[in-house]
């Protein structure tokens, strides 16, 4: 045994069995020619395995008397394989409904209070940021721009609160592109003070990271927004935190939508990214007749019976067809994007107005602790 290492034969047998059953992805092979050759074999074997599993599923469905098409496996995505969140809100959750009836934003959703927003920037903003501010002023009703100058955020909160502004919006930028948005609720309520109506406080304050900003002028085929109050769509906010963020964003719009303007503001949450869009819709009546599939089948059967019957039955069938009511035309919905278009991601929520020293955080995004897997979402 000099110069020879002992070999475990049992491991070799296991490796051979594994190699026969499934082939490893040849990305680890350093030789380019050999890697390309093995990769072709790998794809061929993978395709054969998929075909075999598809045939096996079809056989099992036939044995059980099920439809093969209905039993097709849905593709796995990050959305339908997300980890279960214990704070997910059910539709009939009485506790959540009771909390939302008395929170800081209840008066906005009941349309007893209309929002009035002040927007400002970081000190010494670039000229390009003002194009985005102009789009926001057309997007949010009752939004007013005030220059930052040398005032601190705390001074601006006091200034805006005395002038009946309900929200403060501060934009930050990097390389002449907006990369952050801080929104602070300035209206004093008892809910912000823990339910104490005698000691009313402002808040909360949230900070969002902004990305993929596209101004209205750069949106292909964009339209011009009118002064009508848009309808609002809040989609995908499922957890307790998501409900709070959705209601916070919903409080930025008046809840007396003017439907004649046909404008919609959408906040769509997907994988904790909030996609913001602004559209105009129109319903058009098409040229083709709308027929349900059952009606079409009945008409085909009637035609077959009529062709087999005598002339008298043919006449009866024609009379029946004449007596039928006219079918409605197909109605199509068309969308035109108005802009702006951008994406938001929540970083933190703080109680009260902006306070870096003594402010208490309701929620703070800690990437290393919270983002353990790609299938973990918080909103």
Topology:
Layout: H1 9-21, H2 32-64, H3 94-101, H4 106-109, E1 117-121, H5 129-139, E2 143-145, H6 153-162, E3 167-174, E4 177-185, E5 205-214, E6 231-235, H7 240-250, E7 263-270, E8 273-289, H8 293-308, H9 311-323, E9 329-337, E10 341-350, E11 361-364, H10 367-370
Parallel strand pairs: 1-2, 1-3, 6-7
Antiparallel strand pairs: 3-4, 4-5, 5-10, 7-8, 8-9, 8-10, 10-11
Characterization of this structure:
There is one protein chain. Strands 1, 2, 3, 4, 5, 6, 7, 8, 9, 10 and 11 form an eleven-stranded mixed sheet that branches. This protein is of the alpha+beta class and 379 residues long. Strand 3 and strand 4 form a beta hairpin. 32% of the residues lie in helices and 23% in strands. It contains ten helices and eleven strands.
Q: What percentage of amino acids are in beta strands?
A: 15-25%
How many helix segments?
10
Can you count the beta strands? 11
What is the 3D form? Answer: extended
Structural class by helix and strand composition: alpha+beta
Distance N to C terminus: 64 Å
User: Roughly what is the average pLDDT, rounded to an integer?
Assistant: 85
Order of helices and strands: HHHHEHEHEEEEHEEHHEEEH
The residue ranges in which pLDDT falls below 50 over 5 or more consecutive positions are none
Biggest sheet statistics: 11 strands, mixed
Oligomer: single chain
User: Percent of residues in helical segments?
Assistant: 25-40%
């Amino acid at each position: 045994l000099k110069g020879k290492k002992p070999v475990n034969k049992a491991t070799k047998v296991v490796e051979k069995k594994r190699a026969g059953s499934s082939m490893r992805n040849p990305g680890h092979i350093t030789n380019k020619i050999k890697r390309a050759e093995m990769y072709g074999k790998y794809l061929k074997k993978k395709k054969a395995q998929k075909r075999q599993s598809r045939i096996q599923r079809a056989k099992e469905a036939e044995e059980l008397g099920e439809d093969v098409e209905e039993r097709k496996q849905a593709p796995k995505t990050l959305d339908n394989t997300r980890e279960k969140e214990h704070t997910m809100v059910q539709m009939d959750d009485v506790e959540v409904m009771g909390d939302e009836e008395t929170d800081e934003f209840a008066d906005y959703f009941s349309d007893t209070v209309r929002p009035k927003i002040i927007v400002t920037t970081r000190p010494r903003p670039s000229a390009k940021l003002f194009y985005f501010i102009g789009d926001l002023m057309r997007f949010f009703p009752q939004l007013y721009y005030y220059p930052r100058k040398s005032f601190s955020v705390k001074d601006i909160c006091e200034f805006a609160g005395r002038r009946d502004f309900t929200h403060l919006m501060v934009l930050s930028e990097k390389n002449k592109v907006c990369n952050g948005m801080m929104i602070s609720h300035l209206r004093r309520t008892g809910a912000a003070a823990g339910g104490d109506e005698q000691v009313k406080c402002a808040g909360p304050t949230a900070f969002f990271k902004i990305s993929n900003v596209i101004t209205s002028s750069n949106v292909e085929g964009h339209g011009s927004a009118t002064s009508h109050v848009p309808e609002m769509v809040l989609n995908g906010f499922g957890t307790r935190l998501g409900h709070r963020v959705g209601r916070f964003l919903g409080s930025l719009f008046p809840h007396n939508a003017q439907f004649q303007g046909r404008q919609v503001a959408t906040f769509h949450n997907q994988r904790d990214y909030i996609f913001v869009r602004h559209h105009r819709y129109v319903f058009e009546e098409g040229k083709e007749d709308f027929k349900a599939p059952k009606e079409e089948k009945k008409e085909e059967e009637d035609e077959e019976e009529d062709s087999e019957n005598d002339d008298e039955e043919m006449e009866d069938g024609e009379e029946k067809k004449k007596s039928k009511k006219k079918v409605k035309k197909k109605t199509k919905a068309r969308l035109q994007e108005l802009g702006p278009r951008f994406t938001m991601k929540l970083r933190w929520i703080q109680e009260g107005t902006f306070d870096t020293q003594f402010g208490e955080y309701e929620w703070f995004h800690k990437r290393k602790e919270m983002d353990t897997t790609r299938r973990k979402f918080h909103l």
